[in-house]
Design a protein that fits this description.
Length: 245
């Protein structure tokens, strides 16, 4: 029986959106049995995203999950309203089904090695794996006990008050397990989205399944895209002065 990977991708209008989404969609073309849930942080579906999804050779849902006016500030997490909308959609469409699947949060600007998808496909509850390019350490990874082969802690530049100090791209959740956890939700609290979400699933550390060769391989990177530099006015003035003299 086929196990579908439900990829939840929040996206919104920014200069790099077309480049990010094109790269992600073409990565996904290399992966079998994907269901792409793309949720725009907007009040209307954008034509460019719609066209890209039509060109992509995978089943998809194109949804809208705008940030509520109460959560536009910097302390509110990015992409949360989108992911909450995807949760709603999954419950509406897959409750009372026997569909085998895995849920994964795939932000539009990360970089994915296609092998990560085969690693997560066998997730029975929650699986975890390292993520590269996280802040100053350049890495976020579960710590795996050599003796037991189990996850016993986390190595991440930001531990804070987190029980699960992981990045959004560093774990996957079994679909039926998620659907059975009626209280599963994600907070708007920046820095704590992953931790609260995993806590809301009621999962315990001993249940976590390490992937990517016992968390020794980096198969996904938290790359960040930024718009190209703006032309520097002072520099332009210099050039103009030079040509004048
Ligand atoms: N995002 C969004 N609305 C926003 C900001 C971000 O939908 O106002 C999406 C974005 O497209 C990405 C995810 O949320 O898929 C995380 O945002 P971003 O990449 O800017 O955050 P970072 O990687 O810097 O934490
Ligand atoms: Mn990002």
């Amino acid at each position: 029986e086929r196990i579908l990977i439900f990829l939840i991708t929040p996206t919104y209008t920014r200069p790099t959106q077309a480049a990010d989404m094109t790269r992600l969609s073409q990565t996904l073309q290399l992966v079998p049995d994907i269901f792409w849930i793309v949720v725009e942080d907007a009040h209307n579906r954008s034509r460019s995203v719609e066209d890209l999804l039509r060109r992509t050779n995978a089943p998809y849902a194109h949804l809208l999950g705008p940030r509520p006016p109460t959560h536009l500030d910097k302390r509110s997490g990015r992409g949360v309203s989108n992911r909450l909308r995807a949760f709603e959609w999954l419950r509406e469409n897959y409750s009372n089904t026997t569909q085998k699947g895995v849920i994964y949060f795939a932000d539009d600007d990360n970089a994915y090695d296609v092998r990560i998808f085969e690693e997560m496909r066998s997730t029975r509850i929650v699986s975890m794996f390292p993520v590269g390019l996280i802040s100053t350490l350049g890495l976020s990874t579960p710590i795996v006990s050599r003796k037991s082969g189990k996850i016993i802690g986390f190595h991440d530049p930001f531990i804070g008050r987190r029980k699960f100090a992981v990045d959004m791209a560093g774990f996957a959740v079994n679909l039926q397990f998620f659907l059975n956890q009626k209280k599963a939700t994600m907070p708007y609290k920046v820095g704590y989205e992953e931790d609260y979400f995993l806590k809301s699933l009621g999962v315990q550390i001993w249940q976590l399944e390490p992937k990517a060769q016992n968390c020794t391989q980096v198969l996904v990177w938290h790359t960040k895209t930024k718009p190209a530099d703006q032309p520097k006015l002072t520099l332009m003035k210099k050039v103009t002065n030079y040509t004048e003299t």
